[in-house]
Amino acid sequence: MDHLTAPLAETEARLADLATTRKIIAERIPPGTEPDPPETNAAYQAIVNAFNQHPGQAFQARELHELLGMPTDEATVNVTRSRLGRLARQGFLTQRGRGRYQKRT
Predict the structure, then answer these.
(1) What's phi and psi for 102, nearest 5 deg?
(2) Helices (H), the chain
(3) 7 or 95: whose pLDDT is higher?
(4) Which residues are registered as beta bridge partners of 101?
(5) Residue 88 to residues 7, 34, 41: CA-CA distances in angstroms?
(6) Where are the domains of the chain?
(7) Is 50 left (phi over 0), alpha (psi -120 to 50) or beta?
(8) Fewer CB atoms near the end CB (10 Å): N or C, the chain?
(9) Yes or no: is domain 42-103 CATH 1.10.10.10?
(10) What is the reported pLDDT for 37?
(11) Which phi and psi angles does 95 have, rounded to 5°?
(12) Tell me, what's the pLDDT at 103?
């Protein structure tokens, strides 16, 4: 448990710094202007839902796009490839061969 104390303190300090930065930025925004809304996580949620609905199946990015009715142009599929890589690094997915991802069981 003691080995987690230092990383926790560092993370809490970083969060405090981020909160201060956000406050300073918010103060500098001219009145009457709203910042752009943050990117929604709808794409990630759709990807995770697809893997939850088909837990034993491995997908490539293009196959996911076809399953979800998303555009299949190369640029959009490349963004999904990046998202799949992130989800694999975070432990939600496993990579089954080159470019094939499956829900971690």
Answers:
(1) -140, 155
(2) 2-28, 42-53, 61-68, 74-89
(3) 95
(4) 59, 95
(5) 23, 35, 17
(6) 42-103
(7) alpha
(8) N
(9) yes
(10) 53
(11) -95, 120
(12) 93
Q: What is the pLDDT of residue 87?
A: 92
Residues ≥6 apart with Cβ < 8 Å to 81: 61, 99
Contact 61, 84 (CB under 8 A): yes
Q: What is the pLDDT of residues 55-83, one digit of tens each?
A: 889 999 999 999 999 899 999 999 999 99
Q: What is the DSSP letter of 94?
A: E
Please state whether 66 falls in left (phi above 0), alpha (psi between -120 and 50) or beta.
Answer: alpha
pLDDT above 70 covers a percentage of the chain that reads 91
Would you say residue 4 has pLDDT above 90?
A: no
- Looking at residue 56, its amino acid is G
